[in-house]
Design brief:
This is Sigma-54 dependent transcriptional regulator. With 455 residues, the chain is of the alpha/beta class. Helices cover 48% and strands 12% of the residues. 29% of the residues are buried.
């Protein structure tokens, strides 16, 4: 129960007020009482940490008019109405108009206390969520990009402010999904090069044969299939920032060429000997310790020293629990905008579930969880899938069925939009196609009727 939430009793009978006040104070509630509804309304505002417990039949203003006035003031303020038997039709009408609950007189103490506790919990969550939203809205600059309340994140924000001004080559360390790219973008955005381009390349996502041409560009005819000149990522980032993600996977021969670029600040396209001058800041990201890889001969030490003018480490989400709820709230708000769906209520049990989860996939996993939360896809577990023959069948069969079920949920939630479904299920579009083919799923069967007209 939240002791910060006050119970406001409105009843024109002083003896009822006294009896209720005594009972609720024994239960640990804070109580305020009013004999007149207008007086109670005057004491309330949108920020009130309060739950209203009011009689339906009162001189000057009945329960319905009181409810209408309170709904105008704040439609998320819980109003519980007490009604004698004859007033039940009015109380039912009030429930339709948005009352939290009605209780028939004579009141059952256990039921009343239970309902008040639930209403107080709800009010507490509404006010907390509003506070979080206001904080996010009030945050300017860095706080809006690098979200979190932990000492680690505050420290990173401070580092970004000073590093961005210095425009130095930087290494960002952190586990997969920690948001190294977000930190890199912030370093660019707050730097003097922010008018230039931010060019990102994932060294792990490009084959060894292509990475050179991707980074340095090539001239026509420099290799089979090179039928037009290609400007590489380094040249494209001239005047801005080049972000090299998963640099630990960069092949050693390419590392030597990159080192030369960093030393001489010139590049040569593949198939050309003309040097092109480049001015840029290089930010590299790695999930492994590059100094250690250097010792093991898996990463060039000279390149490491060259890049390591400054470094930042983002700790995993499990080590900074204070960031879980602000981040979840941020991504849930974004998802509700993106999918044009209302933000569902976060129950205390759900918030607790978020706090208990170890988040092995870090912020990326949290963002996916926020997307699923807004779309109403429940976290599935193997056990929740019913089979006609009740879970007999081989491990493979059950896994197949589980996979099909998850694909179906993702496609249904996104109305068969493959790009969105792939993003939601955290897989490439290619993998999604392949798996849909395997399970003979057709995107048309997941389109809801209203969505078809909007395509």
């Amino acid at each position: 129960m939240h002791h910060t939430i006050k119970i406001i009793i409105i009843d024109d009978d002083q003896t009822i007020i006294e009896a209720l006040t005594e009972m609720l104070e024994i239960e640990g509630f804070q109580v305020e009482s009013h004999l007149r509804a207008d007086k109670a309304i005057a004491s309330l505002n949108k920020q009130s940490s309060a739950v209203i417990l009011s009689d339906v039949r009162m001189p000057k203003m009945d329960g319905l008019s009181l409810l209408a006035r309170l709904q105008e003031l704040d439609n998320e303020l819980p109003v519980l109405l007490m009604s004698g038997h004859g007033d039940i039709p009015m109380a039912i009408e009030a429930m339709k108009e948005g009352a939290y609950d009605f209780l028939e007189k004579p009141l059952q103490p256990a039921q009343l206390i239970n309902q008040l506790q639930r209403a107080a919990e709800k009010r507490h969550l509404v006010l907390e969520n509003r506070k979080l939203k206001e904080n996010i809205a009030a945050q300017t600059g860095l706080e809006a990009l690098i979200i979190g309340e932990s000492a680690d994140i505050k420290n990173i924000r401070q580092h970004i402010s000073s590093l961005a001004q210095a425009n130095v080559d930087t290494i960002i360390y952190g586990e997969t999904g920690c948001g190294k790219d977000v930190v890199a973008r912030a370093l660019h955005q707050f730097s003097l090069r922010n008018k230039g381009r931010f060019i990102a390349i994932n060294c792990g996502g490009i084959s060894e044969s292509l990475i050179e041409s991707e980074l340095f560009g090539h001239e026509v005819g420099s290799f089979t299939g090179a039928n037009k000149r290609h400007i590489g990522k380094i040249e494209a980032a001239n005047g801005g920032t080049l972000f090299l993600d998963e640099i630990e996977t960069m092949p050693l021969p390419v590392q030597i060429k990159l080192l030369r670029v960093l030393q001489e600040r010139t590049i040569e396209r593949v198939g050309s000997t003309t040097p092109i001058a480049v001015e840029l800041t290089v930010i590299a990201a790695s999930k492994d310790n590059l100094a250690l890889l250097g010792e093991q001969g898996k990463f060039r030490k000279d390149l490491f020293y060259r890049l390591n003018v400054a470094s930042l480490t983002i700790s995993p989400l499990r080590d900074r629990p204070e960031d879980i709820l602000p981040l979840f709230h941020h991504y849930a708000c974004k998802a509700s905008e993106h999918f044009s769906k209302p933000l569902p209520t976060m129950t205390p049990a759900y918030l607790d579930h978020l706090m208990q989860h170890p988040w092995p996939g870090n912020v990326r996993e949290l963002k996916n969880a926020a997307d699923r939360f807004v779309l109403g896809i429940n976290e599935t577990s193997l056990a929740s899938i019913k089979r006609e023959d009740d879970m007999n069948g081989s491990y493979e069969d059950r896994m197949e069925q589980f996979e099909r079920h998850i694909l179906g949920e993702g496609l249904r939630a996104t109305n068969g939009q493959l790009n969105e479904a792939a993003e939601l299920l955290d897989m490439s579009r290619k993998t999604l196609y392949r798996k849909m083919k395997k399970h003979q799923l057709d995107k048309q069967q997941f389109k809801s009727h209203e969505a078809i007209g909007q395509e």
